[in-house]
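Q: Now give one record:
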Amino acid sequence: GSLTVGQLYAALRRLGCRQVWDTNFAADLTIMEEGHEFLHRLQNGGRLPMFTSCSPGWIRYCETFYPDLIPHLSTAKSPQQMFGAAAKTYAAQKLGVDPRQMFVVSIMPCTAKKFEASRPEMDSACRYWRQQGLLEPHEHFPDVDVVLTSREAAKLLKMAKIHLPDMPEEPPDSLLGRY
């Protein structure tokens, strides 16, 4: 029942994470992208209504049972996937890290996020680096390498004997620089 986000950031660092970013930033990007897409559709006679694309469970349901609704889905990536792409493009450049050496772990409450990260089209960072001439055509990596559910993350902390209430409050790392 307590808000422990800052303590979770500290715990993840104790587990060995070099950068701990919060996907709230990517959620804002997704909202802005969906808003821009909606306005474009509205002003240019695009397909309406427009449905969000943030939930991979909803996307898969639509693809399986209502494929006629696919044109109504937003083309924006979910916050998880948007952040994975930003980490392996913008953050990789900013940190001077080879994106092939980055291992992006996402902690999400929904098991469908695991499926989403494994979709073959979720490799926009790889495509970006290929366009820059920095990757060979055969090289491939996903935007998000692994997704842990909240329950799996809690088990990992327990296995590492990290007691969340004992952790200090720490801020996330900033993708855009110092807060």
